[in-house]
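Async update (no meeting this week)

Hi team, since we skipped the sync, here's where things stand on the single-chain job. The sequence we agreed to prioritize is pasted below, unchanged from the tracker. I ran it this morning and attached the output directly underneath so nobody has to dig for it. Comments welcome in thread, and please keep replies under the output.
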Amino acid sequence: MIAPLGNPLPGDIVVLAETARQEGYNHILRIAEEWSAGINRFERRGESLLGAHDQGRLIAVGGMTAEPSRGDWLRMRRFYVSRQYRGRGIGRCLAEHLLEHARSFTPVVTVHAGSDDAISFWQAMGFQALTGESYTHILSLA
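Output:
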């Protein structure tokens, strides 16, 4: 089940963050930290934070925020799927939900792919590689 995450964040975001950290990914912990500090709560125009749940347990998360370099674009970020759930289409479904949401707000979505697996995933989602920017891939929604 995919649903918006809101205030308060679910308690198991910390469990998911620790799972991600053990794999070398610290960006999920930043969701909880930035949320608590009021830095980012995914509430500006076009922003969204979604979670995927399995039997009530948070297993994946993904967000859409404003693209810092372009006010009219959005950026896919804080995307993570628990290792044991990868390869089942959960990441694709989560990304599709976020992209469908983005269509009402922007003509372009960016992403910064931080690993070879992420590069493959985003390119399979239709994102095109780019160099020389603060993001690595771009997708035109127009």
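Quick observations from my side:
Residues 117 and 123 are 10 Å apart (CA to CA).
The helical segments are 13-22, 27-37, 90-102, 116-124.
Reply here if anything looks off.
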